[in-house]
């Protein structure tokens, strides 16, 4: 087959594969063109932004050359620079005006209307599909027409998400009313319809604001660029979601908004080719911030699962409290006034404090607070186990018993290390672990056979710090027992002062005659 079959399920994947394989051949010779083809192409369209006109011309020429080597012809170049367009030998065609307020030339780029003269995005409303009475507000639209207007506004970056969120909520209200698709909406819904007619940086910081209300949720991402010349802040993307028809608490909606903001910020971080030096998240919900800064296992599964996903992407100290009046995401969830779509609005430029130094930002006061919202009531039971964790009577081999106890001791040590966020021990057992297991078993045997003597030897006199001897009636009295540094009872002998004898010879360990552990030790060393 020499020709690509359009319409087959495999066609898009096959086309992308061939395009990338062709670019791979020129990866070393044209690295910038290779990056543009493999990472800045969407199907057969390329969209890229560079710092200078010369760089744009060079990349475009290299991309054309690489594509030509594979039999691909790339054409219809557009740019916000006439020099670039002229250099690529593209002839300007008559552009159709699609802006509602002025006669501006626009081009469609990946579904968005791009004004190349002023380098701005514009939006197209589908008024031309209706009769002249509807735009003039001389009749009420039907439910079908409201949905059609909403769906004709393509906003993948969320630049006017706070405006579209109102339309989504309005459509939800119309749906609740139960009217048919071709029935005109009532007067209350109609009033709501007509109410909202429409360099190189030292630091690149990403700030995400989240908020929720009874009608929906919103998350807004801003890029704050700090250079030697000052600070610039601008909207990067946003997203809104309407609340489900089933009644949900505001706290849960706020948590869901925080999760949406976390996912949105992760998408932005993965998409941008520039390095983000700092990321912060802002919410005006104290409950959400308390959930994030506390042990989320104390709360319901709804809270626990969502907080877990949030903390997989962010750190608890990345979240900060902001008053509702300063929260930009509030514009996408509450519509008490007409949304401000002017270029100077905080929706496009961020809150005023982002343009100042950090010492003038709102202070977070949620760090040590807690909340009882969504908490799970637990019953704590304290049970003291008097028996050993390992039943020694089930073992007939000393080495096997010692190894099992060593594994148990390692497990408990690893559990404690995880709570302290320290590294854990893995691999085969080492000599120190086996020695600790031996000491544990010997102490266990001594405590079970000589509980009174063991308790007495653990006490000290108040001032002289001398070990107390067991009573004369004890069978260990004549052995003069003492506890060593590992808590094992040893007897004192006449060769205690001998410098040539080992410590085990000077102070032998006392083992109970009839204990199972003593039997295992004797059997092990006898055989």
Helix/strand class: alpha+beta
**CATH top level assignment of the domain at 199-360:** Alpha Beta
Average pLDDT reading: 80
For the largest beta-sheet, the strand count, sense and barrel status come to: 5 strands, mixed
| Tally of helical runs | 16
- CATH structural fold name of the domain at 199-360: Nucleotidyltransferase, domain 5
Instruction: Give the strand line-up of the largest sheet.
Output: 8-7-6-9-10
Please compute the radius of gyration using only Cα atoms.
37 Å
Q: How far apart, in Å, are the first and last alpha carbons?
A: 79 Å
Reported CATH architecture of the domain at 199-360: 2-Layer Sandwich
How many β-strands, per DSSP? 12
* Global outline: elongated
Strand content: 5-15%
Could you name the ranges where pLDDT drops below 50 across 5 or more consecutive residues? 91-104
Helix content: 25-40%
String of helices and strands: HHEEHHEEEHHHEEEHEHHEHHHHEEHH
